[in-house]
Design brief:
Layout lengths: L5 H11 L3 E5 L16 H14 L2 E10 L5 H13 L4 E6 L4 H16 L5 E4 L9 H11 L4 E6 H6 L4 H4 L10 E3 L10 H10 L11 H6 L7 E3 L4 H4 L3 H17 L2
Parallel strand pairs: 1-2, 2-3, 3-4, 4-5, 5-6, 6-7
């Protein structure tokens, strides 16, 4: 629901029966803009009140993409705002292919986030500098901060080779929540197609061919499910209708495990 502003997103979550939602406060790409909940303190205060009245809380804020030119100091206001709005997590993606530099930047970001009580879930993405679960675990270990965790995105997990053996080695404390969507068993083979699928062509949980039941059964009990399913059909629906459809589909899937 990228065209929804944070207030509309919270309203859709409430109508759809979700307990929490995720909101973008940092643009993942330099040419993108996001609704300003960082610099506009009056709007942030209004948003916090809206959350309280809706009964929906924040699961995470998105998304810091660590690049070769990332300025950690410039991200501190976003971290502070995230904590003020009640989030425990700020999603992070590694997009600097110089791994030693990425490790250093991530470490400094983790130190800054720790001052606000925030954890940084690291999401591996097939077209990023951290393309597999194995790579994510290795980077998290190299960073060596207690407030760095691993974010499993179901589509990325299967597109990266479904490393169930690696998943089994990760302590429960390092798995804060999971992003869930579905897709065909056979995915795209080139980077541009992988990127398009992830951003615009995911399938509703339970309506594709990915072995989501096995994945969910391999994760800790009661782990929060963040339903992340951008596709063009859902984008054409009213926000509340899309949220209801996703909630019902996810409930059906979980009940079948």
């Amino acid at each position: 629901m990228l065209r929804a502003d944070p207030f509309e997103l919270v309203d859709a979550a409430a109508v759809g029966g979700f307990d929490r939602c995720g909101v973008r406060i940092v643009a993942p790409d330099p040419d993108q803009t996001v609704f300003d909940l960082v610099g506009d303190t009056a709007m942030r205060t209004k948003f916090v009140k809206h959350l309280a009245s809706s009964g929906v809380s924040i699961l995470d804020f998105e998304a810091i993409w660590l690049r070769e030119d990332t300025d950690v100091k410039a991200l501190v206001p976003a971290l502070e705002a995230a904590a003020e709005m009640g989030s425990d997590y700020v999603l992070t993606v590694g997009y600097d292919f110089d791994i030693p530099r990425l490790t250093d930047t991530f470490g400094r970001l983790a130190d800054a986030a720790d001052r606000f009580g925030l954890t940084l879930p690291l999401e591996f993405i097939t077209y990023s500098a951290v393309p597999t679960l194995f790579d994510a675990v290795a980077l998290a270990e190299s960073v060596g901060r207690d407030n760095v965790s691993i974010l499993i995105d179901s589509l990325q997990f299967f597109r990266a080779g479904a490393e169930f053996d690696v998943l089994a080695t990760i302590p429960e404390s390092r798995l804060p929540y999971v992003q869930i969507s579905d897709g065909p068993a056979l995915g795209p083979t080139d980077i541009d197609a992988l990127r398009y699928e992830a951003r615009s062509a995911r399938m509703v949980p339970g309506e594709g061919e990915l072995d989501l039941r096995r994945l969910l059964a391999s994760l800790p009990v009661n782990l929060p499910l963040s339903v992340e399913t951008p596709n063009l059909e859902l984008a054409s629906l009213p926000f509340a209708d899309a949220a209801i459809r996703l909630r019902e589909a996810t409930r059906t899937l979980v009940a079948s495990i």
